[in-house]
């Protein structure tokens, strides 16, 4: 390939070497979308001999390039088909170039093939049920760097101040994993067991690679050991590119990630697990997805579930058990909150308008593998995975291939497990209660499954453990639940102090365990595992106006060994409210130094309106604190409280500099929450072309929520829909939906028709159009009935307040989940609004 930068054109010449599979094949069909095919030449090859190339009379039928063979061919015959083409790809391949608004941007060209976009820049068979080796030859300006799949073979001089780079990948993979990155990049080199491990940052940002990416070789080492299959490719490159259309993409041997993963070192240290979830996720795919590939998108969980699981594997090993359990516990809660996922099985082929890359493929997929590991035990589980990888190495698989490999390696039948968790939908919802019989010295535990059994959701059969603690100690009893309602009896020398069902939280479930306050307090203080203490925090949070509860949560806030429990306790105290809760949170701020706890303490303070001490503390933290995350959270909290001086504080934060504009962007985002229309001129200024992309996104998000009847603001946001910058377009689309101004509908419809859209843009645009078309309530809040919180309806009179509250909650959630969101690869599932 060569590139015409002025025209944003790709000039290509591809040769497919292929073997005929069926006797009587007379035509070949390649996927080719929007490309101009200049010539096609077909050569029959026999051994080393090639026939004289014959120009083929090809046809283009919609998105297929049909090439007739000279005569009907037999199975096993081989051909080279050479295609010369050019095109201005609408997707698949992207040009990031300097322009009048951004004259200093480093030039970048990068591709994004998944799911079926490779055909937009390369005529090829383009579906993940076949594989190919590749040789990629790129001619680019001499000062550029290129990255493609496989080994670098040569870099040679070419005419006109150009250089030609040749890359060769000798292990076959599917076409959505083909990658080309080229441009003004800087390289950092490392290695693992002699295999090159390389990193590429846009020019000027290489110094950010070590702090964010330096743990890559340790991850490769861990995964190779755990899986019993060494890292399979000839090199591992990670290229960080600007305006990327996803968080990361696991192209074989050459991952592409968003350049926002190159955090300023000062900020990188403020995120618990840094960029490790993203990095370990994409690395995990090099085995699951790349070496062994799902045969169709209906089995995408075999890629995404495993990559999500491999994040846990790294996090448990490097950040230890509590961090792993925190991720798992949070992921389960997050999954249950996405109500649209519950009725869908993990393996499914009916995608209609929703994406197959949903919270089932990622969150539930990761959880299912965790459960399988727990049930089989670590050794047997990894024996199964090793067999799965070895037997299917270089192949395209369906879910049954995983079950078979596990059974062969472990002699354990997993049909029932796969049937309920993978081919079935949902997860168990338990209602639990117990009584103690003093005469018999027995605890009777009643377990009910309350999930609605319909469609693919049935009763679950799950082995688990019940722990009963009395003054003489804790005892663990294995049980298997399988019925709609059943009772279990356990010996107990006295009335229990605590009863745990599924101790340690190893089942993806929701549970309503009817316990008294004292039992929850005991559990909070004494349960050994993260999940049981976290559940106690949540349960106690439902008890309002109770000083004993506040005191216990405050003690947890100070003393629990797991930061995730401390942070959850902070959040819960915020929701409980009241003078003593705010005092405890303020006190905790004097000693909590970890930025990830400190920012959550600050966020929790956003619940205390009209509390002078809270407002003063937030003001002080917003101006000065050791943690930028805490300062950003303080800006958001002040806006949420609508404190009288909020706008002054936010304006000052917009004016001041901070690493990566972290505080400015937080202040711009907070202005929407504050809801003061006086912020509009400043937001318009910062949303305009020329300002940094991140700041513009923050400003556009806030503009969505101010002066909703001002058509000029809508017009301004509409004008951003046609910019070349993907993040800006996405922000503008969401902002228009949120704004509720129906005058934006024609522009959104035009965008939808333009076809000039990447990955998941079109379902999101359709959603926003639907929001704008919905009959509005009296106050014009199209978002009012899209609560996504189990169907509660918002009354007209308190609609605005409820919506604002919900938006704040969402924003808060987004900040908290920032780390994990990266790993979701921003394939942009529908927002929860
Ligand atoms: Zn992934």
Structure summarized in a few sentences:
This protein is of the alpha+beta class and 833 residues long. The chain has 28 helices and 30 strands. Zinc ion binds next to helix 4 and helix 5.
Describe the structure.
The protein is α+β, with helices and mostly antiparallel strands and 833 residues long. The chain contains 28 helices and 30 strands. Strands 1, 2, 4, 5, 6 and 9 form a six-stranded antiparallel sheet that branches. The protein has a five-stranded mixed sheet with strand order 17-18-19-21-20, with helices on one face. Strands 10-11-16-13 form a four-stranded antiparallel sheet, with no helix packed on it. A hairpin with a 2-residue loop joins β17 and β18. α7 (360-376) crosses α8 and α14 packs parallel to α16. The longest helix is centred in the middle third of the chain and has 19 residues, at 301-319. The model is unreliable at 777-833 (pLDDT under 50). It binds zinc ion. Residues 281, 285, 304, 307, 825 line the site of zinc ion.
Number of strand segments: 30
Task: Quote the average pLDDT.
Answer: 92
Largest sheet: 6 strands, antiparallel
Bound ligand species: zinc ion
Rounded to the nearest angstrom, the distance between the terminal CA atoms is 43 Å
Strand content: 15-25%
Q: Please give the radius of gyration in angstroms.
A: 28 Å
Helical run tally: 28
- Strand pairing plus helix content: what structural class? alpha+beta
| Uncertain residue ranges | 777-833
Helix content: 25-40%
Shape: globular
